[in-house]
């Protein structure tokens, strides 16, 4: 199954971080963030892209009513703010640290363009990543338009399991430890929190999953 919310099996930090390149290594620094610290806000100038060294970052926006909508939660090795490479001048989303020890590698757009011009492998990885993000958004839109809420939730949970799950040797269950709140999950699959609660409890009664605040377990 192709990943909908994650860039499969590619640690972009190991490939793209400027400290890997001699020309930029000395002047390159990392930024540290605590939980709920903002990396950037909507309408901020889009003059950098960011790689996650460690921790997790939430991307989202606020509706006119001030309600938070989560677009994705990214983890180590992933890139965000990439639309700045394509000429975006202002952010249309916020980026916020989810962990207490998030480390971010900021890269100026000019530096990114230099790296892309001087390194073909680097450029191909960037284009592959941007193309994947576009396909991911298309796939997510198809799910939101044509699949019912229960199906969207099951597909999300299965992909979460593929990315972050492990098999419990004692029971054979597949266990996923995750950073999402129920509000985050509801936002990601395009439903309300009360509807999500109902469906999660239905799946629990059907003995498909069990769950608590930080863990989802696929039974058997």
UniProtKB/TrEMBL annotation:
The keyword Protein biosynthesis does not apply. GO terms for molecular function: DNA binding; DNA-binding transcription factor activity. Coiled coil: none annotated. It holds the Pfam family cNMP_binding. Keywords: DNA-binding, Transcription, Transcription regulation. GO terms for cellular component: cytosol. The keyword Transcription applies. InterPro entries: cNMP-bd_dom, cNMP-bd_dom_sf, Env_Response_Regulators, HTH_CRP, RmlC-like_jellyroll, WH-like_DNA-bd_sf, WH_DNA-bd_sf. It comes from the Bacteria. Residues 147-220 form the HTH crp-type domain. Residues 12-91 form the Cyclic nucleotide-binding domain. This is Transcriptional regulator. It comes from Kordia algicida OT-1.
